[in-house]
């Protein structure tokens, strides 16, 4: 689905992410783990070219989406982000109604026409975000009136409304309580079961073990080790990964 080859990121000439090559498959959840400042969020932001918007940032190497290198100055970000969606650490609902949050991007891209299509997409997206039953009678209410966990699920539903085949999650549960976190994790698993490629940055080792099929460990700008999550957590090959998993540093 998406692949990087020798991906590097530099800020003002200082390399923050060293040559990183990873592959991500459809229908799988991949967790990116590692201590703060190790490069995992920097890597994640490369996948839909968000780093391009940071002054002084230079991204080298290749980012292959369906085999096509999108790491070029000519790439249309507006079109690319229809297919590679992102959910951020803090919920980011628009100051609009729940319904308008879901329909904002599909309307802009001309993907819906008429009330019937709009209603169907709103319900489909909110069900996919595990939120429909809680808000179906409040669709015209402000999204900002929802709880933090509900707002984050709305952001997931809003992303899914564009029917992406890759969804990036940058610590989506860090500001949430355990119950909301569990619901988000179940939603991420359900997204992957629909054939979507999901990639999640997390500091929570238990979360990575619960939700992901594969895991990649980053340390000081290097992608140190990657593999099936069960293998990574039960038999890490690199001593730095073993030390991180056992809490010797973090």
TrEMBL record:
PROSITE patterns membership: ABC_TRANSPORTER_1, ABC_TRANSPORTER_2
SMART domains membership: AAA
Origin: domain of life: Bacteria
Gene Ontology annotations for the cellular component aspect, listed alphabetically: membrane
Ribosomal protein among keywords: no
Any Pfam family: ABC_tran
Keywords, sorted A to Z: ATP-binding, Nucleotide-binding, Translocase, Transport
Gene Ontology MF terms in the entry: ATP binding; ATP hydrolysis activity; phosphate transmembrane transporter activity
SUPFAM superfamilies registered for this protein in UniProt: P-loop containing nucleoside triphosphate hydrolases
Residue ranges of domain ABC transporter in the record: 2-245
Entry keyword Iron: no
GO biological process, one term: phosphate ion transmembrane transport
InterPro entries, sorted: AAA+_ATPase, ABC_transporter-like_ATP-bd, ABC_transporter-like_CS, P-loop_NTPase, PstB-like
Protein name, as recorded: Phosphate ABC transporter ATP-binding protein
Species, as recorded: Rubneribacter badeniensis
């Amino acid at each position: 689905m998406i692949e990087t080859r020798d991906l590097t990121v530099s800020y003002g000439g200082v390399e923050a992410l060293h040559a990183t090559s990873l592959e991500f498959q459809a229908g799988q959840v991949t967790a990116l783990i590692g201590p703060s400042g190790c490069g995992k969020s920097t890597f994640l932001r490369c996948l839909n070219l968000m780093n391009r918007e940071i002054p002084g940032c230079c991204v080298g190497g290749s980012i292959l989406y369906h085999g096509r290198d999108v790491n070029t100055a000519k790439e249309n970000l507006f079109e690319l982000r229809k297919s590679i969606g992102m959910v951020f650490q803090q919920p980011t609902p628009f100051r609009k109604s729940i319904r308008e949050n879901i329909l904002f991007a599909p309307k802009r891209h001309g993907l819906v026409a008429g009330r019937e299509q709009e209603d169907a997409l709103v319900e489909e997206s909110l069900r996919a975000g595990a939120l429909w039953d809680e808000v179906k009678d409040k669709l015209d209410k402000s999204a900002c009136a929802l709880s933090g966990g509900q707002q984050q699920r709305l952001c997931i539903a809003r992303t899914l409304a564009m029917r992406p085949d890759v969804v990036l999650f940058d610590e989506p549960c860090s500001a949430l309580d355990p119950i909301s976190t569990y619901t988000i994790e179940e939603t991420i698993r359900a997204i992957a079961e629909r054939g979507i490629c999901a990639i999640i940055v997390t500091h929570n080792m238990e979360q990575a073990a619960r939700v992901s099929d594969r895991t990649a460990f980053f340390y000081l700008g290097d992608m140190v080790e990657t593999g099936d999550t069960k293998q990574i957590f039960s038999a890490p090959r690199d001593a730095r990964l073993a030390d991180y998993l056992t809490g010797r540093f973090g």
